[in-house]
Phosphatidylglycerophosphatase A
Amino acid sequence: MADAKIPYSLNSKAVAEATKVWMHKRGVTVTEIAELVMLLQKKYYPNLTMEECVHNVEMVLSKREVQNAVLTGIQLDVLAEEGKLLTPLQDMIENDEGLYGVDEILAFSIVNVYGSIGFTNYGYVDKLKPGVLERLNDKTTGEIHTFLDDIVGAVAAAASSRIAHRKQAEREQELGLPHAPEDVEEAAKKPAAGSDLPE
Amino acid sequence: MADAKIPYSLNSKAVAEATKVWMHKRGVTVTEIAELVMLLQKKYYPNLTMEECVHNVEMVLSKREVQNAVLTGIQLDVLAEEGKLLTPLQDMIENDEGLYGVDEILAFSIVNVYGSIGFTNYGYVDKLKPGVLERLNDKTTGEIHTFLDDIVGAVAAAASSRIAHRKQAEREQELGLPHAPEDVEEAAKKPAAGSDLPE
Amino acid sequence: MADAKIPYSLNSKAVAEATKVWMHKRGVTVTEIAELVMLLQKKYYPNLTMEECVHNVEMVLSKREVQNAVLTGIQLDVLAEEGKLLTPLQDMIENDEGLYGVDEILAFSIVNVYGSIGFTNYGYVDKLKPGVLERLNDKTTGEIHTFLDDIVGAVAAAASSRIAHRKQAEREQELGLPHAPEDVEEAAKKPAAGSDLPE
Amino acid sequence: MADAKIPYSLNSKAVAEATKVWMHKRGVTVTEIAELVMLLQKKYYPNLTMEECVHNVEMVLSKREVQNAVLTGIQLDVLAEEGKLLTPLQDMIENDEGLYGVDEILAFSIVNVYGSIGFTNYGYVDKLKPGVLERLNDKTTGEIHTFLDDIVGAVAAAASSRIAHRKQAEREQELGLPHAPEDVEEAAKKPAAGSDLPE
């Protein structure tokens, strides 16, 4: 029948696209996150380029687990901005309450995907609030970024971890060492034509 | 000088090899872990083959984060078996003390690498102790597997999560949907010849 | 001025009350959660009473970290039920999508408060869905409990961990052993009159 | 019989004592950890005293979950110092390898006990290495503190979270607000005489 309900099926492309669209709507660019990565990593890799930082941020954002956290966090920020949450949750998120830690929990689920070595970088940028994080924390704008603030720091920390793993692999190859690649195969063997994510 | 100390540099191949060697020495095969994966996943994917399960377990074991947890856990088991730990840590690990949870913490760092959807599968096999887990939990052998027991369950849970992500990708491709692959590029662009991990 | 905005200040009583009210509105009773605890723990403590299980569930629910997770999770369930979330988040939560793991992440933040020994119990009940969890998972009612389902399992697992710690303390005291109590002092020294949480 | 093996039973006092003894042997004092807490918290609570910081560190160290992580981490440091670990684990811990994250994982199990609000403080001190952390990171001494370093930062972060929760409770009481105390009852109802931890 024409109006029969189509059974639900996850559309991973739609989730990936929504993540990009919503980060953009909330005023955060991939370049700004890449700048945090550069800040965190340049002392370890003096030759690191902004292009590499951007690429690693994009790879982090391509992970389903990361997309889920980004979308859920932004959703809660938006609803808090519109005043549509239940009291006292509305108050806690609106005021970025210090004893409310669900934002940190979502952020951590992002860091975790690239392993525990990112914990430190996350805490560091979350405390110092450089660059884009300072703007997201400005409480005078009427915008609410209680979740997005922590999420952006987490994406930067995860991208930093990703870079650390890759730089080790490159070093071993330059040294001609036998190398054991980590889990690298594509999520599906025959990638669909028209995929717009690189490599 | 001939005996000058060579500066330390991580050799990822050596870490990967040691992981395989030590799991084998402690009596656990990839096939046994794959059997746990089959047990967990066959009701969702009736066509799932043992070959796929084995492959996914191998991919999980190729991750550095996983190797670190496996080696650290087995090390503590071995030292406990030899009676070489400090009291009261020796007692707690030797007796698989219920209030000692560091084994669960290491196990969780493995599950986390493939995302939170593996939490449930980990707890389930850890409670029911099917297959290889029953043998590792036999307290009458003199062997101590306080850590390995949880680690094996975690590897099986992580492999199950990995399968869930891949099956979704396959489904979307069969449906001809536009597809957004997750982070899939190789850790290094030019894999060294002689790498013995597949794909 | 009479209508000047009162500066925000967390009201912990309001958060605690809202947690109770919202669990009740969503149809979950403390007794039902206590029944999950009994199911998980009776084989270890044959003399465990329902009264003890209820008390331990209440203690878990008195923790701020737990209340934050409960309120956030229920909020997302309610909004999904009302169809008010952004696509594709709406679809994923409405359909309890298998690759969406934010519900497990919130659940884990609850289990963690009482330590890693609760991981296994959480996974076990979340897989088997006994008692109240079966009802919360019924997809034919039009109600959406994607988050609450996991949260209830997590509260039961946390209460089980709490019992394990306390039973150890009781055992040591019965044996006349010198005992080292864990962090037990009140969050504030002079509890306000009229507090309705026990002890 | 004289030589019959006494059945194992956890002695919580012995675990608590060993934690103190081993931290002392490894050269870390409660006062030094309290100084990290003061550094992290003084800007939020100008009247915070060193006595309060010391007390909160002691409360954190009284938790079983924390003691387990401390003892396991110090054990691995000591064995690495003695060169008794298996290659390549020996190399990774001896050199505080950047891609080895089990130390961060143990640290995180400590922070988690007092909730996610401590994540940021942990990362911050772990990056900046103030006070005692600078000494523990000195790689020229022959001592190895790969684990203890992260653990000390985690204990300081956890104590900071504990203070944040208590200060909120105090504020509410001063304001005469109805107050909902968190889980505060003693782990056992009749504390043994001679217990040397307060309240």
Summary: Residues 186-199 of chain A have pLDDT under 50 and may be disordered. Chain A has one domain: 12-174. Chain A touches chain C at residues 8, 10-11, 14-15, 18, 22, 64-65, 68-69, 71-72, 75-76, 78-79, 84-89, 91-92, 94-95, 97, 99-102, 105-106, 109 (CB under 8 Å).
